[in-house]
Amino acid sequence: MAEAIGSFTKEENVLIEAGDCSLAILPKLGGKIASIRIKGRELLQAPLAPYGPRTQTMPFDAGDASGWDECLPSVAACAVEAAAGAANVPDHGDLWRVAWKPIATSAHSATFRGECFSLPLVVERTAALNETAGGVHLRLDYTVTNTGSHPAPWSWAAHPLFTAEAGDQILLPATITTLRLEGSGGNRLGKGGDPVAWPIAELSNGSKTDLSIAQSPDSGIGDKLFAGPLTAAENWCSLERPAAGLRIRVSFDSAATPYLGLWICYGGWPDRPGPKQICVAMEPATAPVDSLAIAGPWSRQLKPGESFRWPMFVDFETI
Question: Domain-by-domain residue ranges, the chain?
């Protein structure tokens, strides 16, 4: 059983293990994957504030803003018109704010269910760890179901905040040469919606930067970008950490989740005083925008009783 995390007891943590990897889940905090450790090295962003109760309206940065959460039915706070009426979706969605219910747990896997409150959606996620020849493989299987009596819109993005150090490298398929900008601290890369070249991008001041190389925490960088729609050959992203001798490779089913969000933050967020994130988040997603209210060919809805399933994979490999 896991050691206590924050103010949570051993009984409130769920630990799964394989090889030299352990993964800790906090069901009462939105099914948060609070820790992934390889050979004792923590791979996820540490809490910026103590774990504590969440409300249905608090902003994401009012909490711990750490680890791995699931963003559904939207990443950005927004108001959407649904068949059952207007819905107000809070910042980073509903799921990180609610306690998840256990379905099944074992030494190597854990299944939990979280229920949204802004829209009638229920998510079930199974996380399973397995040792491989090159390291450890994490497989996540998701199911979202409309439990209401009217069609319901939805979008999803994984939100795994992998800690980063200056000199780490983000790798994308060679065919990805342009990303869409969602937002950039100080508009250093431009305005939301602008195309951004990858990996060598032009800054607003006319200089160039290599987006694939992690910067120091005092750089104050906080950028969110999207790639996609992606093909089956473009269904991955890696973070190589030479100092740690580790590669973190995220992959996904591009037919089910055709977009990839990239949150690169080296001391640039939150905007308020206090601790900052230093991380790279590789985020398979159903949409190339953070807001469910922005409609496009990516927009999705579920009929009453309808479900949608998709996987996500993370490989932790020695380099």
Answer: 14-318
Helix (H, G, I), strand (E, B) or coil at 185: helix
Estimate the share of the chain in helix, then strand, then coil, as percent rounded to the nearest 5. 10, 50, 45
Residue 243: what are its φ and ψ, rounded to 5°?
A: -65, -25
Tokens of 201: 């991008």
d(CA 20, CA 83): 48
Could you tell me the pTM of the whole model? 0.95
Angstrom distance (rounded) from CA 211 to CA 223: 10
Other beta carbons within 10 angstroms of residue 294's beta carbon come to 17
26: β partners: 32
Query: Mean pLDDT in the chain?
Result: 95
Please give the CATH topology (third level) of the domain spanning 14-318.
Beta-galactosidase; Chain A, domain 5 (2.70.98)
Closest listed residue to residue 290, CA positions, set 73, 65, 75, 68: 75
Q: How far is CA 167 from CA 26, 170, 191, 293, 311, in A?
A: 31, 10, 26, 37, 30
Note the pLDDT of residue 43: 98
Is the Cβ–Cβ distance between 265 and 211 less than 8 Å? no
User: Token match 């990805």: residue?
Assistant: 176
Determine the Cα–Cα distance for residues 173 and 21; give it in Å rounded to an integer: 27
